[in-house]
From TrEMBL:
It comes from Streptomyces vastus. It comes from the Bacteria. This is NAD-dependent succinate-semialdehyde dehydrogenase. The active site is at E251. Belongs to the aldehyde dehydrogenase family. SUPFAM superfamilies: ALDH-like (SSF53720). PROSITE patterns: ALDEHYDE_DEHYDR_GLU (PS00687). CDD domains: ALDH_F5_SSADH_GabD.
Length: 479
């Protein structure tokens, strides 16, 4: 940990907070403080804004190939430092090292993907229908951006936003989650090493988000906000963006349905459930929350899932053989405990887990609940923990209605061997993404995002760079 930057990164330099404040970073497996990081305040935010604004014009004029090569070099550095970055991530947020290594590869791929997209920004030309003018369309960077990332995928959520911003020619201020600032600071160091000019990326960890973020959004210099986090906070940020009409991308909460029909291959369904539920200890917006299983196979599915979940090893992410690390903090674990207790009080049967272990750390066991009452709190709450809640259904129309009965619409999962039903149900689900006979939808080459209160816009894929570009139309008289 001694080589990891712990200062703010502003204008290409590592600096302390103006008022000298620091914030502690805890290891959720032990509760011990592993680092103290500079805690940005309003003055630091203004300095970061000034640096981003000053760098914008020159960065926008930088050749697309030059931006592409910086991203490619950063990709290669990340891959070369996989173990170092994985250990850092595990220390600050708890996921097992195997998952952390997987996230490093996932994060790096956003830089490789957008290094390729940087040189494919195009426009258009043509004569307008009235024949009087030629239309020339060009695309240009939207301008300085504020990027706000969560703690659950601290490296990948950074690269998923930074990659397209760099490719498009935008400068940035990155505010990482206060629980996991170290991964973001390490990423800033890598980009500086890869040749990113000073001021293009500025990183301001803070425990004073309101004091830092609101003035930036209301000040008129930030032209784009990209936020990943809760729907509640997203609504607040949208209101703050309204005064100066800041362009927004919002990747918000989820409440994913996982639907298993009577003709599903149960081996595939259980494998998919393990991925959709247990990736990142269930601390993912894509996590399956509500397991709707056809009554005829519900008992067998529950038995198999409980066996698989019960076989997982819980412990510190650095320990060999561990499958499930700690939750992010005591508050997150208490939320899971309360949701499980409420479901059990309403008649749910605990097939496995359900009891908090003794000892240090924020651990919670993989848990499967059967016969969950539809009125249970965990049916309309993003669980963010290793809890699978099983409900039964009898009819396709019924399950589609219940799956859509939520204000969120990020992702849904459907397991069936019938092609017609697979397509029909997938098209009826009110979600931005569907996993059909698979529990994993995230991929840098695919557009990630939801509908309803799960967000606005898309990240990744060929459309991911569009969020950081504006069109300009130029009319040129003919003849």
């Amino acid at each position: 940990m001694t080589d990891t930057p712990t200062q703010l990164f502003i204008g290409g330099a590592w600096v302390d907070a103006a008022d000298g404040a620091t914030l502690p970073v805890d290891d959720p497996a032990t509760g011990e403080i592993i680092a103290h990081v500079a805690d940005a305040g309003p003055k630091d935010a203004r300095l970061a804004e000034d640096a981003a604004v000053a760098a914008q014009e020159g960065w926008a004029r930088t050749a697309p190939r030059a931006r592409s090569e910086i991203l490619r070099r950063a990709y290669e550095i990340i891959i070369d430092r996989t173990d170092e970055l994985a250990h850092l991530m595990t220390a600050e947020m708890g996921k097992p090292l195997a998952e952390a290594r997987g996230e490093v590869a996932y994060a790096a791929e956003f830089f490789r993907w957008f290094s390729e997209e940087a040189v494919r920004i195009d426009g258009g030309a043509g004569i307008l229908p009235d024949g009087r003018n030629r239309m020339l369309l060009s695309r240009r960077p939207v301008g300085p951006c504020l990027l706000i990332t969560p703690w659950n995928f601290p490296l990948a959520m950074g690269t998923r936003k930074i990659g397209p911003a760099i490719a498009a020619g935008c400068t940035m201020i990155l505010k990482p989650a206060p629980q996991t600032p170290l991964s973001s600071l390490a990423l800033a160091g890598i980009l500086k090493e890869a040749g990113l000019p000073d001021g293009v990326l500025n990183v301001v960890p803070t425990s004073r988000a309101g004091e830092v973020v609101e003035p930036l959004l209301r000040g008129g210099k930030i032209r784009k906000l990209s936020f990943t986090g809760s729907t509640q906070v997203g609504r607040l940020l949208l209101a703050q963006c309204a005064d100066t009409v800041v362009r927004t991308s919002m990747e918000l909460g989820g409440n994913a349905p996982f639907v298993v029909f009577e003709d599903a291959d149960l081996d595939k369904a259980v494998d998919g459930a393990m991925v959709a539920k247990m990736r990142n200890m269930g601390e993912a917006c894509t996590a399956a929350n509500r397991f709707f299983v056809h009554r005829s196979v519900a008992e067998e599915f529950g038995r198999r899932l409980a066996e698989r979940m019960g076989a997982l090893v819980v412990g510190p992410g650095t320990r060999d053989g561990v499958d499930v690390g700690p939750l992010i903090d005591a508050k997150g674990r208490a939320k899971v405990e309360e949701l499980v207790a409420d479901a059990v009080d309403r008649g749910a049967e605990v097939l496995v887990g359900g009891r908090t272990p003794q000892g240090p750390g924020c651990f919670y066991p993989p848990t499967v609940l059967a016969d969950v009452d539809p009125g249970s709190r965990l049916m309309d709450t993003e669980i963010f923990g290793p809890v699978a809640a099983i409900l039964t259904f009898d009819d396709e129309n019924e399950v589609v209605r219940r799956a859509n009965d939520t204000p969120w619409g990020l992702v849904g999962y459907v397991f069936t061997e019938g092609l017609d039903r697979a397509l029909r149900v997938s098209e009826r689900l009110e979600v931005g993404m569907v996993g059909l006979n698979t529990g994993l939808v995230s991929n840098p080459a695919a557009p990630f995002g939801g509908v309803k209160q799960s967000g606005l816009g898309r990240e990744g894929g060929r459309v991911g760079i569009d969020e950081f570009l504006e069109y300009q139309y130029l009319a040129v008289p003919v003849g």
